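Checked the freezer inventory, then went back to the computational side. Two predictions to log before the end of the day. The first one is the construct we discussed on Monday; recording sequence and tokens without edits.
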Amino acid sequence: MSDNINRERRRFFGGAAMTLAAAQFSLTAAAVAKPAKSAAPIKTGTNTSFAPLKQIEAGLLSIGYAEAGPADGPPVILLHGWPYDIYAFADVAPLLAAAGHRVIVPYLRGYGTTRFLSEATMRNGQPSAIAADIVALMDALKIDKATIAGFDWGARTANIIAALWPERVKAMVSVSGYLIGSQQAGKMPLPPKAELQWWYQFYFATERGREGYDKYRHDFSKLIWQLASPQWHFDDATFERSAAAFDNPDHVAIVVHNYRWRLGLADGESKYDAYEARLAQAPVIAVPTITMEGDANGAPHPEPSAYAKKFSGRYSHRTIKGGIGHNLPQEAPKAFADAVLDIMSEA
């Protein structure tokens, strides 16, 4: 879930970067406040399938993905989180495709039809590895630059790509804002109330937790959906469409490693050390960005005021009202699509 561990700890970035970000924020936030265009009206849940999924070898993976819209349209990559999947964007993708954009919605490593090319590859869930997967996907699809939008793990992945490979990102939409963290930050204790929100992270730190998630992964994921979006009354069919993605043979290993890595309880791979060193500095993101938050997000998440200065380019924040929880793209698809269209037009 969204990594608010870092909210309490990211106080070490340079004063000069803070000043620059604050100045740019004050100059540009108002400019993006009004939508440049709006997606067509849509009733949530009306789209329950994608065109036949595609598969492509990219980096360490054979990545399964949905695609919509014209092949020569400006590319948009939509990234899901845990425990969700590409169906979080089932209503968003057709809105963006209808506006003329090429929409790519990949399964992250450990989800759906995405598979490792080699059995010998470490089942690594560290965030920089997941971000490298998406850059490899862009290379495989010959996409030089794209707008990247996501929530939960997907927002963190978008943040990392924007920070490490800004030349590949035209613009970004990030639910719950700035989510870049580090193992050093993850080791720091939080006040008890904040720690309570991360109960599943501590559960996954145990072997009992790994075995429990493996055995009850569907029930566990449904519980997370309910807690993270307490006012979203999804039906069984909606959940089951996404839950099928958790039957991936690498799913449990990736999820458990991700959360253990964040706490410093599991090692990553040395080839990502240089990336992690840069991310540990909590770099300011310069690409045009809209951050979003639902007014009823039950998952751990930072307050917008805690991360506004982490964006030095064109930037604004939107809080979506109406009982919208953690899975903002699926609960408020038009608002999410509008944000993507708006930031693309401003970039």
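The second is the one RB wanted added to the comparison set:
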Amino acid sequence: MTDCPFGIGNTPLTPFSITLNGIRHELLLKEERCNAFGSVKDRVAWYILSQTIAEKGPVEAVVDASSGNYGYALASICQEMGIAATIVSSSSISAFNAEGIKRAGARLVIAEPAPGECSNAARMRVAGEISAAEGQTFLNQYANFMNPASHEHWTAPEVFADGPFDACFVTSSSGGTARGFSDYLKAERNGTQLVLVEPEASSAFLAPACESGKLKVPGYGSQRRSSFAGMRPDPGMLRVDEASVLAAFTLLEARGLTHIGLSSVGVVVGALEWLSRQSERRRVVCVCADGDERYLDEIDSRYIPSVGADAFDAARARLEPVIASMAPEVAA
């Protein structure tokens, strides 16, 4: 990590205050959008690739599966290092990430799920098939324990250097960040509560709260059980619906409070819900995976219509007074 030639890590921790039920809390956002290629997945891509090279020697070509951010980061890093990259994604990939992957000179392959197969599993299957057929090194981020290790040994220590916190909020996504933070906190025994925030249809770590429903926000939950599940004890879980995520995103943008991405806003909304239940002042941290630039061009045309105007409007009306009480903290 110390040998990383890119501007990855040492991202800012931005403080806000929020008043709920008359109690003023401190809410800190770990802004991973400030990494060189714009997301927390920069850390994962560099860590897995560099560790693979350290163990196996130089590689000429790599292939891996990604919903978007990791693929963008891996393609960008490989371009800088002169390594050919193939990224296997799904039709749900954002236009921003798809264009970025191609701009970095990588090959983008869209995996079509087989009957009964979720998109995550389809991506893994196709990436494995390409590796076997073409001899490319399959990094396998969804099952490679170097993924959570990058957060256990890099992201989490960086976050908790600014502790203590009463709680830490992350989204489960495909599981690497959540497992890495869980392993770190278990080893350090610092007493911080880890809370995963995801929609009802997600099943990355625990059984979904509903049996059907398609995920609508990229990187916010997963409909495949994570390869990194099996934490003991099971993590705390908060379910936040996607209409609330999209409504909060537009409210934060309108107020110019922050420029975090959609799943990051989901994490923040989960933290606000948790804080609303507290009877005394709390200090909490949210790990914010990426930035708003990946979603702004499609927020009105793609994301809001996916949840429906009525659900979006109701969530916005409910969250508007909550977001209105959120304000940047001035450093002492």
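For RB: Residues 186 and 232 are 9 Å apart (CA to CA). The mean pLDDT is 94. Let me know if you want it refolded.
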